[in-house]
Amino acid sequence: MAEIREVKKIEQRASIHSHIKGLGLDEKGRAKVVADGLVGQVQAREAAGIVVELVKKGKMSGRGILFVGPSGTGKTALAFAIAKELGEDTPFSAINASEVYSTEVKKTEVLTQAVRKSIGIRVRQRRQVYEGVVKDVKMKIARSRTNPMAAVPREAEVTLATKDEQKTIQVGDVVATQLYRYNVRKGDVIWIDAETGDVFKSGRAKGIEGAKYYDVESTKYVEMPTGPVRKEKEIVNTLTLNDIDLNVAVQNISFGILSSIFGGEVNQDVRQQTDRLVMKMLRENNAELVPGVLFIDDAHMLDIEAFSFLTKALEAELSPILILATNRGITKIRGTDVESPHGIPVDLLDRLLIIPTRPYNAEEIREILKIRSEELGVEMTQESIEELTKLGTETSLRYVSELLEPLQVIAERNGRAAIALDDIREAVKLFADVRSSTKFAREFESLLSK
Questions:
Q1: What is the per-residue pLDDT for 144?
Q2: Helix (H) or strand (E) holding 156
Q3: What is the SS3 assignment for 52?
Q4: How would you classify the pairing of strands 321-326 and 64-68?
Q5: Residue 95 contacts residue 297 (beta carbons within 8 Å)
Q6: Cα dihedral 214/219/221/225 (nearest 10)
C-alpha cells in the first residue's frame, strides 16, 4: 500500500511529452498551428487525425503506421498524441528497436511483452481517493539509492482543496515520483488513489491564487471539485495484459513460473491463465477491452525475423495499433543483403500508412521552446527566447531543447532568475551541438582513439 499521511493543521521535472494532450485538430480535422501541446507538422497531424478516425471506426485492422522524417521532427510526440486522442487511459508502450536484442530474453519474448503492454483492460471500481485542486506542493529531492548520479523525489507534502474543504497530506516516494513525473503544480486538479497511490491529473482550475497561467497552456481546464477532499469515487483502472500476466504469475507459487519472471520471460501457461481470466471478465461485462498503441522507434534496426513477427501480429484478432518510426532512406534490411526503403521489408511496408515529418521552421521552434520552458519551470527573457530560436534553426531543435535545464543552472550561478543572453553564450561554449562535435572530431582526429 502506498504511504499517504494526512497532515494536521498547524522543484520538479516534466517528462519529455507530458505537455501533449492530443493532435490539436479542429472539428473538421484541420490542425491548429499551436494546440494540445503540439506545434507545426500540420500535414502529419492531419494524417494522424485520419488514422484516429479509422481506429475508432474499426477500419485499421491489419494495418500499421510509419512515421518517416529527420531526427527531432516529433515522430514520438505524434505517436503519443494519437494515443491521447484515443482516450486518456489508452495504453502507450514505446520501445527502441535496439531493445529487442537482449542477451537474456528472446526477440519474440521482448516483442510479445511489448504487444501485451499495449493492450488494456478497463475495469470500473469504487475506491477511496484524495481529490482536489493543488494549493501547494513541496517536494523533498534526494540522491537515488540505485544511481547516485540521479536525483529522485523521496517524499512530498501536498495541499488539496475543494470548494468545501482543504487538507494537507504527506506522501511517500511512490506518490512523490508520480507528482514529479507529471509535473504537478499549483492550480492542477488531481486525485490520488488512497490504497495504491496512483496519481491522476484531471486538468487545471482557473483563478487559483499564486498559480501561473500561460498563453500556450496545453492543459484542459476543469471545474474545482466539491465535497470533502477524501471521498469514495468510482474510478476506472486500465491494466495491460502484461500487468495481469505478472500479477497472475506472482499468485502462482510455482518455482518454474517464478524463475521465468526473474529470468525476464513470462511462462506461456501464465499468459493462457490471463487470457481466460480476461475473457471471463469480458463475458460478465465487468471489463472492456482497450486496444492501445505500440510505438517502435528506429524501426530500421529490427531484423527480418522481428519484421515477420510484427506482420503476423498485425493480422491477429487482438492486436494494438502498431506505429513505427525511422529516419533512414534506402538501407539494408538487418540480417539480409537486401536493400529496401527505410530498411523495412516491402511486404510489411505495403501494410503501413506512411506519414512524413519535416524539419521545424523558426516560428515553430520558438513556440516549442515556450512550451518546453513552461513545462520545465525555466524562465526566459524575450531576448533569450529569440537567441535560442536562432540557435535552433542553425543547429537543431533537439539541441536547444536539451540546453534549457543546463541554462537554468548557469543562470542561477550567475545570480539570475531568468535565462539571459550571456547564459546562452556560456552554454554554447560548454556544450557542443552535433556539427560542432563533428568539426572537433575532425580537427583532433589524430589524437582520438580509433
A1: 72
A2: strand 151-161
A3: helix
A4: parallel
A5: yes
A6: -120
Angle, helices 268-283/255-262, rounded to nearest 10 degrees: 100
Fold (CATH) for 41-118+292-359: Rossmann fold (3.40.50)
Q: How far is CA 434 from CA 172, 401, 437, in A?
A: 40, 14, 5
Calpha distance 432→442 (Å, rounded): 14
User: Nearest Cα to 336, choosing from 302, 295, 385, 312?
Assistant: 302
Highest mean pLDDT among 187-196, 239-248, 337-346: 337-346
CATH number for region 362-442: 1.10.8.60
**In this predicted model, what pLDDT tens digit does every residue of 216-275 receive, in sequence order?**
455 577 888 889 999 988 877 788 988 888 888 777 655 444 445 445 677 788 888 888
Single-letter amino acid, residue 391: L
pTM: 0.71
Cα-flanking dihedrals φ and ψ of residue 276, to 5°? Answer: -65, -40
Which residue in the block uniquely carries the three cell numbers 487525425? 49
Please tell me the distance from the alpha carbon of residue 349 to that of residue 354, in angstroms, as a whole number.
8
Decide yes or no: CATH 2.40.50.360 for domain 4-10+124-237.
yes
Average pLDDT of the segment spanning 269-291: 87
Which runs of E-coded beta strand occur in 8-147?
A: 34-35, 38-39, 64-68, 92-96, 119-143
The dihedral sign for the CA sequence 159, 160, 163, 166 = negative
Q: How do residues 131-155 score in pLDDT, each as one tens digit?
A: 999 999 888 888 777 666 777 788 8
CB count, 10 Å around CB of 321? 25
